[in-house]
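Course assignment 3, question 2. Fill in each field.
Student: A.L.
Task: Predict the tertiary structure for the chain below.
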Amino acid sequence: MALDLSKFIGRFSGEARDHLTRLTTGLAALEAQPDDAEAINALFRSAHTIKGSARMLKLTGISTTAHHLEDLLGALRANHYQADPAGISLLLAGVDAIAAQLDQLESVGGDPPADPALCDTLARAAAAGLAAPATADLIGSGQPPVDATPDQPSAVTPPAAAAPAQHALDSVRVPLAKLDELIRLIGEVTSVQVQLRQRVLEAQDLGRAALKQAVGDGRAPGGLADPAAAQRFAHDLRDDVQAQELLVAGLRERALVLRMLPLAMVFDPAARMVRELARDQGKEVRCEVQGGEIELDRQLIDGLGGALIHVLRNAVDHGIEDPATRRAAGKPEVGQVRISARQTGGGVVLEVSDDGRGLNRERIIAKALHKGLLDPARAATLTDDQVWELSFAPGLSTSEIITDLSGRGVGLDAVKHTVNDVLQGAVSLVSRTGEGSTFAFTLPLSLAVMRVLVFSCGGQRFALAAQHVVELLRVMAHEAITLAGRPAVVLRNEFVPLIPLAGLLGLPPTPAARDMASGTMRRGDGMRLVVVIGVRQAKLGLIIDQLLDERAMVIKTLPEHMRGCPLVGGIVVTGDNALVSVLQAPSLMETARRTRGETAVQGTAGAGARPGRDEPWHILVVDDSFNTREIVKDVLEACGYRVTTAEDGLDGWQKALGGRFDAVLTDVEMPGLDGFSLTAKLRTHDRYQATPIVIITSREQEEDKRRGIQVGADAYIVKGDFDQSSLLETLHNLLG
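Answer field:
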């Protein structure tokens, strides 16, 4: 889908004119100081920015002109071009040409074409290092001829009767810090608005109480104590506050739009990164982008980049196969990665998919068993969805090998934390063996102010972001059905399980909620309020006590000491200044599945040491260099590991058979049995099929890393890049 240029022209034009001003001013100053390297670098960056922004918006003409101007500035930076008056004149001619293109863009629209004669002159000057192009070179370019004779006007000197063109500014640039402060203040105004509404309710209560008391005492209303006047005041205050709420809502919406950016800002660089990573690995990958015109708050754009890059790196590193493997599998040699976005409700769904090999179900299960994340009795009965859920467990990397590309053991739990906790969204994964994987991120449009549902449950108040609330239901006792011994309700031909939220949070549920959950409610027991939450296709009905409020509110981040709770993503302040926890819908659904025994992850084990383990991890270090063995041994033993060393591959194989090790570190270049062969042999042994194996070698070629993948290594560390922290971090993540 092509970008709607009309939405971004103003922003691009304002930024480009700022850079043109810097170019004009900087070039004029350069005549006095032609050797100012930093000034030349600044000029180069301005031309480069204009070129990149124009290219992103598919403005080929402006991008072409800026590209040639950038090349000439590059020649100037490399001392291949002279910053004398004639040379500066040609550069200014390029600046004026871009300004003229911007004029045309703003007045007529479309893609203003580049001047071929001028671009040719700029290109030849950059290539040949010409100090002053011939006069004929600029004929037809719309620019006055360049003459190196001092007493003649330069190419950018206007005729004596001509007045310089004036451009009416229809936009200004504002530093992001100022814009962020504006958004923050509007958020505070929104919070105060909630408190004002609370004052209205209190005033109405006072008016009713005064009227009731007056009627009870038999007094006739009158004077300042007139209850009717108090009620009129409360009504007028309510109307005033409601009018102010409309104004604040309008101000908030318009202010948030100022900070919205198109997803193309992160999609386009990500697509280029995919192509470059694939090329470095000898793979061919086509990256398709859709939905780049959809806008999100800059705060979300900034936070999304890391998670998106992580998923894309994984797709290129171990998802997409090399051309030979794809050809053997009957696939096109060119792999496909697709980044897309679409709006849904009050948010955006972003998907990253590839047509690679998909996730390795057996390998994930083996790693989960090794880390104590999975009950061995359940391993054979897991559904695919439950296995993919294991991929997000802490410390369980889905990468076949840890390299500089896929990260040092940082698994998808980092992506999940970013999307769920930081961006208030949700992430899910679907994979098909041999066909590829798809990650889906469900995100709000903004984090500054979000619509929030506030309710009571178990004697306390809680909140949920409205984007995860499907609907509210009032369920009669006889409407609840029992499925597999658990209560549920039929919602538009779909079974939705029910669970008391209080019990899920460890609070004492009300007797009615407890009865509904146990299926013992009688027909005459009345109705219960249910909040149906949804994350992707899954839905869950939470039985609550009472709905209190629903409005746009500011979600404040948790204090540092409270950020370890996965169920709470932030807090909101109510009108009576109470702090209310905002619950995380994805975490609630995971907890409910765990309660019902539907999740594959076993508790929270795996975030640290294996449950019940009191002995140190036993590591086998295999290297034919005595010095290397001792260095690695000292590093590991200083951190509490137990270490056994082997002097070559055959010695390592014998010691592995004679003992039981929790991880193996091996060199590649060794006599008798090299590290690749040792790794392959270990993987054939039942005892070491899931044991972490780390290759530490001086070989840094991509084919060596791919060989490491083929033989079953979990990590590949180049000795030239070796440092203590990287080794320890890798072991920590592999061992849990």
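Instructor remarks: The CA atoms of residues 511 and 521 lie 10 Å apart. The radius of gyration is 33 Å.
Grade: pending
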